[in-house]
Design brief:
272 residues, Beta-lactamase Inhibitory Protein, Chain:B, domain 1, disordered N terminus
Length: 272
């Protein structure tokens, strides 16, 4: 009997060791870290009850994906916002449920209009402007589906970010704000000035807002058939910056110091 009990104890210990070798803790960590991540579709992703396979090199079976698209339509179009709503690790694959699967998709709260009291205040005619809950820079995908990273053998022991990188041919999880994408699209000298919170000639209104924010005052002038607009930053007493626009482009920046009583003495602009 003692031998049998001892053998049973060894067997149980062996099971514990085997479970540890599977690294269950790491699996749970991956499931926790990957669930609820948001990404943007880089291609049309079909709706499908059966997970659509993706190889670690990013390749897919175009016939299978095409058949699913013809049968059930798209779960997400290029540029649509998706969310990983469930992660399951089975054998040689990691399965990602997107937008709650084939029966999921855009939710009711993505269309709810709420009246906002922040920032802009009342609109024309005294009506308050509304906003849409869940309405970010991207459009929420119309449907849901499942995709699976299929490995040749064991699933590699790596961090969650590495799994997201493997999905990059289909989904981009490096979401950036509209401001960040806009910054990448402008000339380097304007980007450098914005990062220093400065305004230079040649900027437009959007760049100026990114650099300095909303002005304290705006003043328009019309002279010799030319209309200009000054954006004024600062109030007396203290430093005041005048940014002059013509046809939406900065044509001059003047730095001054306003004394008590509103008297302004001109200061030499900062040399660049």
């Amino acid at each position: 009997m003692r031998i049998a009990v001892h053998a049973l104890a060894l067997a149980v210990a062996g099971c514990v060791v085997a479970d540890a070798a599977l690294d269950d803790a790491k699996r749970q960590e991956l499931i926790r870290d990957l669930t609820a991540e948001y990404g943007t579709a880089r291609v049309i992703i079909p709706r499908s009850k059966k997970p659509l396979d993706i190889q670690p090199d990013g390749s897919i079976d175009a016939r299978v994906w095409g058949a699913a698209l013809n049968k059930s339509g798209p779960a997400a179009r290029e540029g649509d916002l998706i969310q990983i709503t469930r992660v399951e690790i089975k054998g040689d694959r990691v399965i990602f449920e997107l937008n709650f699967g084939i029966s999921g998709g855009r939710k009711w709260w993505h269309r709810v209009q709420v009246s906002g009291g922040g920032g802009g205040g009342a609109g024309a005619g005294g009506r308050q402007r509304g906003t849409t809950l869940g309405n970010g820079q991207q459009t929420h995908a119309p449907g849901g589906t499942e995709i699976a990273l299929l490995f040749d053998g064991e699933i590699p022991q790596q961090e969650s970010e590495e799994f997201l990188k493997l999905l990059r041919p289909v989904l981009d999880f490096e979401l950036r704000s509209a401001d960040e994408m806009y910054m990448d699209s402008i000339a380097p000298e304007f980007r450098a000035a914005i990062e220093q919170q400065e305004v230079i000639e040649g900027m437009d209104r959007d760049m100026t807002l990114l650099a300095k924010g909303k002005p304290d005052r705006k003043v328009r002038d019309f002279e010799d058939g030319v209309e200009t607009e000054d954006w004024i930053y600062g109030k007396p007493p203290g430093d005041v910056v005048f940014v002059t626009f013509e046809d939406g482009t900065v044509i001059g920046v003047k730095h001054a110091h306003a004394n008590l009583g509103g008297r302004v003495s001109e200061r030499k602009p900062i040399e660049r």
